[in-house]
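seq as requested:
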Amino acid sequence: MAQDKKPGRGKNPVYITDVMLRDAHQSLLATRLRTMHMLPIADKMNRAGYWSLEMWGGATIDSMMRFLNEDPWERVRVLKKAMPDTRLQMLMRGQNIVGYRNYADDVVREFVRLAAEAGIDVFRCFDALNDIRNLETSMAAVRENGKWVEGTISYTMSPVHNIPSFVAYADELVKRGAQSICIKDMAGLLEPGDAYELVSALKHAHPDVLVHMHSHYTSGMASMTYLKAVEAGADILDCAISSLSMGTSGPPTETMVAVLSKTDRATGMDVSLLKEISDYFRGIRKKYHQFESAFTAVDPDVLVWQIPGGMISNLSSQLEAQGALDRMDEVMAEVPRVRQELGYPPLVTPTSRSLVPRPPSTCSWAATRWSPKRPRTTCSATTAGPRDPSIRRCRSSASATRPPSPCAPPICWNRSCPSAATSWTSWASSTATKTWSPTPCSHRWRWSSSSGARAPSALARKSPP
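struct tokens:
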């Protein structure tokens, strides 16, 4: 690939992944960038020397189908044709794929196969709760299709998260075949000193595994964090072309390239060519002015409420549409309290959607924070810290073997397992009497909705009792 042939690189170069085609406009423009505005600059992006271009996954598929009336799969195919020498990268939510609930293993495997066939080269697989069980199927599927699998640490700050816990999680990712480990700092929380310690620990534990940094500029620390990470041995940096950088987006690509240019970690990228790409997107951005987030400057309050950039952009748009943008501080003040009650989950989709299910309108945020199908289903998942028992809303001890309301019984993932059919029959016949006993089997189980059609934001598999 072209990125492996660029001259002018240092002895131990840092590589750049640009997020302008996915995370940058998701953070700044509510994920509205159209494919037709990506293609005219594709040739220059292909020649720029990126390690990869993140251009799919996350909220892009939802947005393309919901708002843009575009075919997400066609975007991958046309961009791969236009940029054959550059790795295309996607963000995959593990067992959630690109949705907001868990999907069956066969669905995950088929999605990965089709994405690889369409042109995705690098799969960044993450789980919002750092639950390794939710990554096993997706990571195995990526390896089976011969593509690059990047295991991801969803970074967060809390009394129960620390560097040893993140390194232990990285050990599990490497055991499952991760070729690189991404430190996903989705809210810009990672401080420079902590970045140095975390990267150093990861490189000491797994010297042959690439460390990939991802951060946002919301707190204003991202560039400094990146420099300390590079000092500690980080291999790849996620950046955004300058015209789509800063604020809730990432550090500017050109700045990081220039800072490293006279060191043994020089990227070898041409700043003049990057400027042409930046100038192009500066003009394109004006076409999306109605989607601009109101939160595009540095806001150190993110260190308290920890909401990722894309969530801030979407939430502010919703509040503005309701004429309630002045209540943003009220919403943010509530988030840390809810997060503590739920065991300090990292705030990244879909957990960020669980804790911020809808903006306040005519009623108070405190009264609406418990969406009936979101935070309570999060209680079924594994979190790093203890959860407040009061939020479980369990039934009486006589029916304690049943899942917390409103979830229905656990159903085996293996559809060929006779226990699955038996469980459904048992559940259907017992709804009137409110009694139900699960049929045990050795396969993995999950929570399903009472209709049996889909799970409401289920975030983790459960083992049989």
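Strands lie at 15-18, 52-57, 87-92, 122-125, 148-154, 180-185, 210-215, 236-239, 410-412, 445-447.
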